[in-house]
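Molecular record:
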Amino acid sequence: MSALRSTVANYAPFIGLRYSFSRKRNRFTSVIALVSMLGMVLGVASLIVVLSVMNGFAGELRGRILSLVAHGYVEGGPGGITQWREVLERIAAQPGVIAVSPYISDKVILRSTRNLQGAVLTAIDPQLERGVSRIAQAMVAGDLDSLEAGAFNVVLGATLARILAVQPGDEVEVTVPRLTVTPLGVFPRTKRLRVSGLFEVGAQPDVHQAYVSLATGQKLLGTPGAVDGLQVKTRDLFAAPQIMAALAEHLPADYRVRNWSQTQGSLFRAVKLEKLMVSLLLLSVVAVAAFNIVSTLVMSVAEKRRDIAVLRTMGARARGIMLIFIAHGLGLATVGISGGALLGVLLATYIAPITAFGEQVLGVKLFDPSVYFISELPARLQWSDVSAVVLAALSLSLLATLYPAWRAARVAPAEVLRYE
């Protein structure tokens, strides 16, 4: 008898899978099972695609914005850093630091003959700046070295130049937050700058960023011989917080040390939180599909009451009956999850050509580069996301099978067989 019970328990998955894919099921039960599997396919596929697109947007954001943002900053006190070259050499000698560049930055108003716009004016050393940012590679007109070619040259973001309606060779008037005292009174400091180049990274810096040479910035912003701070590039973007924290221990106490996660981190935390919330919302679709399995199994238990009674009289334990219907439900779920994972991976991999084909067929442009800074839907498939989605769907499906399986195990064979 014990051998028979062991055999029934060992065959529980086999019997459960036979129930899942048998052609002799009630038609209504088959329809409900099919709907459950299709719901699982759509839920898993949509979750994988959306996570991949969110990863793509985060990657685009990181690549575009951080291309002009240093990994870390060392800022002086109210008077800035006067002996900045000595500090620069000291920072450059620290482990993990690969480049250092001085900067002066302040908010200004730029005005052309047709428009005016607020901007951030940053004074840089073009040669040293190449080591800490990709501004030189982002130039679409002119050259970054043109800042040193003549006094009072300026390089503008491409979108900022379009707002001001200027091109290289035109002039803009800059008003800085400094006052000039003259016999006629006190006036804000203004200066005409010649546009010598344009850059474009496809992100917010294109709208508000302007660059001048370090010498020009010191004259305009009233900090002769000093700089506001030093930009630092580390060996690894994600190691920057640790490297900058270690660097702070070798600098005077009145120096302020920051890293990119403090200056830009709120933006990326917002993207991460948005990804989490969207994932939870779409996971509810998977949950609904998973718990549709409950309906399928409840009807299946009602259909298989005679089979359950026969198995119990042959020596099957309640545990074996539960395993049969758990395998029954997981068999249906696994088909849906596998199909959804395959469909989601294919869609995430080829989302760009698919959207391009849709735009061509419909005759519309979903992503206008002048509005969204992108021309196609980005997607970055991460297998860790696929694994997490599959495991979450399997876990929900397992939970959904427990109650019907428990109901099946409680079927009394005597009551069923009494009327047979």
